[in-house]
Design goal:
4 helices, mainly alpha, Arc Repressor Mutant, subunit A
Amino acid sequence: MIIPVRCFTCGKLIGDKWEEFARRVKTGEDPGDVLDSLGIKRYCCRRMLLSHVEIIDEVLRFYEEAEKRREARSYYYQQ
């Protein structure tokens, strides 16, 4: 969902590096080289970025659908 601020294992700050990492990987750079250039050397921190999946957009879609249903129900019951 949202990238953690710190590595779960060692506690190093990694949340501030996610946007640049994602942008550079999207442009076609090798993820390992990007992590090296960002200064992320420990494998525990590297896995935090490599294994992260952005699913917030999908979660928000379901939340919006639930809100629409709730509004429709409240409209139906008011009449």
